Amino acid sequence: MTTVTASPTASARVAVLRAEARLFLREPGTLFWVLGFPPLLLAILGLVPAFREADDGLGGLRPIDVYVPVTVLVAVIVVGAQAMPPLLAGYRERGILRRMSTTPMRPSALLAAQMWLHGAAALVSAALSLAVGRLCYDVGLPDHALGYALTLLLAVAAALALGALLGARVRTARVATAVGSAVFFPMLFSTGLWMPVRSMPDVMAAVVERTPFGAAARALDQAQAGGWPDAAHLAVVAGWAALLTVAAVRWFRWE
Fold first, then answer.
1. Could you tell me if 219 and 197 are in contact, meaning their C-beta atoms sit under 8 angstroms apart?
2. Is 226 helix (H, G, I), strand (E, B) or coil?
3. Do 93 and 172 contact (CB within 8 A), yes or no?
4. Residues 129 and 71: beta-carbon distance below 8 Å
């Protein structure tokens, strides 16, 4: 006799999404670091007078102009390195995913819900950073909106895949937090948080532009200035997103 496992209905998936959304909104730490910290960082940087003055080394741009794309990517990296890994590892550690695997509602529904929520939070944070830059410091909105949006979506996809991969390879939430922190700071450096990518020495810039968020930072800069992002930068971000997704699918375990 053949046993047929019922597939979860769309309404059941929506119910999981709603439940996870309520839990997500009850995490003030995650909400702050994803939604609040990047625009707050931009607002604080803009208070420094030197950040509001044109810099010949930046092609006549002000540092605050350059840091808007950086803070956009900060939220994306927080999602992938700090928010998702300990949450997914915690679900596995507590046996939640294993218990779900015995029901018609597959654990993949919960994973999908988390990716939707964290992806949406990263996009909202990006919008907040753009708004702070525009309203507080007269930073222009991206001149090439389509190129900017495509780059941002690819970066979010890479971050979500990174979060799933890190969550897949660790056993506990505590270890996931430590591993995520080890990844977090190099990724922040690659965005140009401490030194704009365009100001880095050639060799360093070449290395950084091979990383997902370094390439994304350069592509966002180009779209901000009104040009279509360089195909090489888009290819790097898309390639990392695909590679991390394949790795996450290959190594993710529900228990």
1. no
2. coil
3. yes
4. yes
SS3 label, residue 9: coil
Structural domains in the chain (count): 1
Radius of gyration of the chain (CA): 19
> Which of 162, 184, 166 has its CA nearest to residue 85?
166
The pLDDT assigned to 9 comes to: 72
Half-sphere exposure of 82 (CA within 13 A, CB side): 20
8 A C-beta contact, residue 220 and residue 137: no
Q: How far apart are CA 77 and CA 88, in angstroms?
A: 16
Residues near 52 by beta carbon (within 8 Å), at least 6 away in sequence:
46, 62, 63, 64, 137
Model confidence at 75, pLDDT cuts 50, 70, 90, reads very high
0.85 exceeded by the pTM? yes
Least Cα distance to 125 among 47, 33, 237, 50 occurs for: 33
Residue 2 falls inside a structural domain: no
**Structural domain harbouring 38:** 11-251
Is residue 219, in this structure, part of any structural domain at all? yes
123-150 pLDDT, tens digit per residue, is 999 999 999 999 999 999 999 999 999 9
pLDDT single digits (tens) 151-195: 999 999 999 999 988 888 888 888 988 998 999 999 999 998 888
